[in-house]
Amino acid sequence: MSSLPLADQVAVVTGGARGIGAAIAARLRADGATVVVFDRAPDEGRPAVDVTDEHAVQAAVAEVVARHGRIDVLVNNAGVYPHVPFEAMTLDTWRAVMGLNLDGVFVCSRAVFPVMREQGYGRIVNIVSSTFFIGQRCLTAYVASKGGVIGFTRALATEAGPLGITVNAVAPGLIDTRGAAAADPLFDEVVGAQAIGRAGAPNDVAEAVAYVVTPAAGFITGQTINVDGGHRYH
Ligand SMILES: NC(=O)c1ccc[n+]([C@@H]2O[C@H](COP(=O)([O-])OP(=O)(O)OC[C@H]3O[C@@H](n4cnc5c(N)ncnc54)[C@H](O)[C@@H]3O)[C@@H](O)[C@H]2O)c1
């Protein structure tokens, strides 16, 4: 019998084709889980799944259950962070950010929740952002969307707890990914306000997620865990 913490478990990671999501997927695999990635970018042997498309997500979840029998872990990681000064922000851009970062979390959680309820076990982790605590400029839609997910996390945790399901958020600080490279001008500023003077790596986030999805973390729920090098918030 394997002693890996996620042996015989099945995990779904959204946005797992690259960046933080890819690191989380690799980390959960190393802990013994069968990991299925839902990403809009298709890959060999993996069809594209747009997490804002409710029917596509429901079909993908049904496919995972048909093939693997269960879903123990859901990591809602897919997200976008366009830097737009407030007066350049359009309602279309605002809605696109909310549609993925907030609605996408709802759509995936809603689709997986009945599977976890039936099992009497589940771990949902939402990847949010330390910018929620900073209020970083040019990110109004993004910060609002992540604040929404932090609220969603707390609220869903209260309904999920009696069913054996925990719901937590992990809030990365600045993490060195291809997506974040677009935010280059903020690198020095953000890193300068941290206790640990470097940008985070995707693996720094994956380590926190890997702990909170273990069966051993069953008394931790409704929380937002910051993985931000000790950023000093104002
Ligand atoms: N990189 C950072 O500095 C940082 C900091 C804090 C929080 N985060 C959060 O971490 C998460 C991942 O960030 P990242 O930097 O790895 O991003 P990234 O842009 O490198 O990767 C995002 C992934 O999500 C996928 N994706 C985008 N839209 C999708 C959709 N509609 N359906 C399915 N998949 C979709 C993309 O194809 C890509 O594989 C995001 O939620 C982001 O807000 C990132």
From TrEMBL:
Ketoreductase domain span: 9-173
Q: Which organism is it from?
A: Capillimicrobium parvum
Enzyme Commission numbers on file = 1.1.1.107
Name a biological process GO annotation: fatty acid elongation
Which protein family is named in the record?
Answer: Belongs to the short-chain dehydrogenases/reductases (SDR) family.
List GO molecular-function terms, semicolon-separated.
pyridoxal 4-dehydrogenase activity
UniProt name for this protein: Pyridoxal 4-dehydrogenase
Q: From what superkingdom does this record's organism come?
A: Bacteria
Q: Which Pfam families match?
A: adh_short_C2
The portions of this protein that span the membrane are none
Look at the named UniProt entry and state the broad enzyme category this protein falls under: oxidoreductase
Q: Cite the InterPro entries for this sequence.
A: KR_dom (IPR057326), NAD(P)-bd_dom_sf (IPR036291), Sc_DH/Rdtase_CS (IPR020904), SDR_fam (IPR002347)
Keywords in alphabetical order = Oxidoreductase
